[in-house]
């Protein structure tokens, strides 16, 4: 059976005007899928990458990877979910910007009753990102000091809290004193306002010249060399995003000259590529949220039909914490 719903589609890459809010037909869920009546949708920088074409997908395509809602239909072969379940997901095929959608069931987990749909939509991609960064890519140990860029963003504020829960001293870069105060409030050990301070020199001061074993960089082009210069010999740069544009034209020799450094470019998808891995990562995230170690700070809400303004504000760095798109 086919139903009609509304969704955002992109027919050509470019500015926010390329996002079209349209009525679309949706088939019943195929084998291995569930159909979700969405209650909230997460907004992330990766959505901008796909809209502009920095990340490529065959046109036309939807946008968004993160949402929460209620299962309204279940495809053949799905056993861990049923109609009526409260669910959330943070890694799916493009298309979360929709009222109703089908999602591979292996990417969907039950949402605890104590966590709201908005929190679920705001935390899954960002929270699972922090989980793989801190627990898999470079497993953090209590007492370590690390640097994370954009500490007052959606990923950043979860990271500040998770680091504190692990006994890790997180230094966060921010663009204003207000964002610095927010990051400190949410668990950052120290902050660096890069509009006023030299990040590398401040890191040296905070570490007594030793610098850091790992830097987490979701900004990309603008911070790449700064991140390398904050690392101690044989340190690891985890470059997991491109908020300022892609890192290009890197001469590998720079890693040698700066101290036999390591660089990795991980993605969430390769860390939670099975239901078992997704469930394990989500369970760890939910445990921290339910214990109160991590609070999901939703600072902006936009109706789905106003997604263009949401993208403008996110790109202009006018947002803090998480942003959700609401479904009327």
Automatic annotation (TrEMBL):
InterPro entries for the chain: ADH-like_C, ADH-like_N, ER, GroES-like_sf, NAD(P)-bd_dom_sf, QOR-like, Quin_OxRdtase/zeta-crystal_CS
Pfam families, sorted: ADH_N, ADH_zinc_N
GO cellular component terms given for this protein: cytosol
A GO term for molecular function: quinone reductase (NADPH) activity
Record's keyword annotation contains Lipid metabolism: no
Span of domain Enoyl reductase (ER): 14-325
Domain of life: Bacteria
Matching PANTHER family: QUINONE OXIDOREDUCTASE PIG3-RELATED, QUINONE OXIDOREDUCTASE-RELATED
Name of the featured protein: Quinone oxidoreductase
Species in which this protein is naturally found: Pelistega indica
